[in-house]
């Protein structure tokens, strides 16, 4: 295990600033997820840690040692990529054991370690097969086994589950979570999938335009977003964000009239999550009202969307909720619901 520190690290490609100067400490044994949309700099940041991208400015420390000028092979890291990177002419056992072969392990030691590692990811019966004979999930497990077979200081994972179908992603998330608990190796994981981030991470670094805009536990990222970008990016369905004004202790917008504990101000955005809103019984009134715009049955619940003028509000109702489109409905915040207020111009929390 190793602590990783990025100290005023910056990455430029010519005149283009890909990752502005920033610092980040990844604790020993932590599972840190770099989360953000495509082009936000998360993969570039991870590749700098790996040594696959040169650092333009700043220092990278792994286990207290400056490694800016060390090649990847000397950083004691293991990487798992989106495309698996398996050798097609090798068997599963040979693919898993290849890092040990490079480090001079004898055949007997390699075979024992490969067998032990393969059992951890449920590949014990597939060791003689080649990658072409495996499913996508099995190939990903081979890539994971190859990474963990020698227990490096640091794991780097670049969207390793993005090529899998939804069911396999759920299974592999559980396997990754268990493996990290079992091995305790410091892990940096890159993804654009918020579900992966929320379920896997010790902490999440949300990135936008090369910068970390919030770094915290998944629970805090979800419940206390620092700005509008995080509020809109985290959550499925996303947080309701409503433009309005605050006057005399009341937030107002088309279809919204809600008491808030905040000073008067214009150009404010109110945020509330769909699961923190309740549907009011038929013909009832609530601080959120509008015409029923859409119903989406998700199985365990129904997403109910109301629209009034420019205001669109989504709530999570019961699976048995049904009403004709165009029906006037009302919503009320649940007891203990969190209301979030953001400045519309800066995007920051107020």
UniProtKB/TrEMBL annotation:
<dbReference type="Pfam" id="PF00005">
    <property type="entry name" value="ABC_tran"/>
</dbReference>
<keyword id="KW-1003">Cell membrane</keyword>
<keyword id="KW-0472">Membrane</keyword>
<dbReference type="GO" id="GO:0005524">
    <property type="term" value="F:ATP binding"/>
</dbReference>
<dbReference type="InterPro" id="IPR017871">
    <property type="entry name" value="ABC_transporter-like_CS"/>
</dbReference>
<dbReference type="InterPro" id="IPR003593">
    <property type="entry name" value="AAA+_ATPase"/>
</dbReference>
<dbReference type="InterPro" id="IPR047641">
    <property type="entry name" value="ABC_transpr_MalK/UgpC-like"/>
</dbReference>
<dbReference type="Pfam" id="PF17912">
    <property type="entry name" value="OB_MalK"/>
</dbReference>
<dbReference type="InterPro" id="IPR012340">
    <property type="entry name" value="NA-bd_OB-fold"/>
</dbReference>
<dbReference type="InterPro" id="IPR015855">
    <property type="entry name" value="ABC_transpr_MalK-like"/>
</dbReference>
<keyword id="KW-0067">ATP-binding</keyword>
<feature type="domain" description="ABC transporter">
    <location>
        <begin position="4"/>
        <end position="234"/>
    </location>
</feature>
<dbReference type="InterPro" id="IPR003439">
    <property type="entry name" value="ABC_transporter-like_ATP-bd"/>
</dbReference>
<comment type="similarity">
    <text>Belongs to the ABC transporter superfamily.</text>
</comment>
<dbReference type="InterPro" id="IPR008995">
    <property type="entry name" value="Mo/tungstate-bd_C_term_dom"/>
</dbReference>
<keyword id="KW-0813">Transport</keyword>
<dbReference type="InterPro" id="IPR040582">
    <property type="entry name" value="OB_MalK-like"/>
</dbReference>
<dbReference type="InterPro" id="IPR027417">
    <property type="entry name" value="P-loop_NTPase"/>
</dbReference>
<keyword id="KW-1278">Translocase</keyword>
<keyword id="KW-0547">Nucleotide-binding</keyword>
<protein>
    <submittedName>
        <fullName>Sn-glycerol-3-phosphate ABC transporter ATP-binding protein UgpC</fullName>
    </submittedName>
</protein>
<keyword id="KW-0614">Plasmid</keyword>
């Amino acid at each position: 295990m190793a602590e990783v520190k990025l100290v005023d690290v910056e990455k430029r490609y010519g005149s283009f600033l890909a990752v502005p100067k920033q610092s980040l400490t990844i604790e020993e044994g932590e599972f840190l997820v770099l989360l953000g949309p495509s082009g936000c700099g998360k993969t570039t940041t991870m590749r700098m840690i790996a040594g696959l991208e040169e650092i333009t400015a700043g220092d990278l420390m792994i286990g207290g040692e400056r490694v800016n000028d060390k090649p990847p092979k000397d950083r004691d890291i293991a990487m798992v990529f989106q495309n698996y990177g398996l050798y097609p002419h090798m068997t599963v056992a040979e693919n898993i054991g290849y890092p040990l072969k490079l480090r001079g392990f004898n055949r007997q030691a390699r075979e024992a370690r490969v067998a032990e590692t393969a059992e951890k990811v449920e590949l014990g019966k597939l060791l003689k097969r080649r990658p072409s004979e495996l499913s996508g999930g099995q190939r990903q497990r081979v890539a994971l086994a190859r990474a963990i077979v020698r227990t490096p200081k640091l794991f780097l994972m670049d969207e390793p589950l993005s090529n899998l179908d939804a069911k396999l992603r759920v299974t592999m998330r559980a396997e990754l979570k268990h493996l990290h608990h079992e091995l305790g190796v410091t892990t940096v994981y890159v993804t654009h999938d918020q579900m992966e981030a929320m379920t896997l991470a010790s902490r999440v670094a949300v990135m936008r335009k090369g910068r970390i805009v919030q770094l915290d536990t998944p629970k805090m990222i979800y419940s206390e977003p620092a700005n509008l970008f995080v509020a809109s990016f985290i959550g499925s369905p996303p947080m309701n964000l409503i433009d309005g004004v605050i006057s005399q202790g009341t937030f107002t917008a088309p279809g919204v009239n809600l008491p808030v504990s905040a000073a008067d101000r214009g150009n404010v955005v109110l945020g509330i999550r769909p699961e923190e809103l309740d549907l009011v019984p038929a013909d009832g009134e609530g601080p959120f009202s509008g015409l029923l715009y859409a119903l989406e049955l998700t199985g365990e619940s129904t997403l109910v969307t109301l629209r009034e003028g420019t205001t669109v509000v989504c709530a999570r109702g019961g699976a048995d909720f049904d009403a004709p489109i165009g029906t006037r409905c009302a919503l009320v915040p649940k007891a203990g619901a969190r209301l979030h207020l953001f400045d519309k111009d800066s995007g920051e929390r107020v």
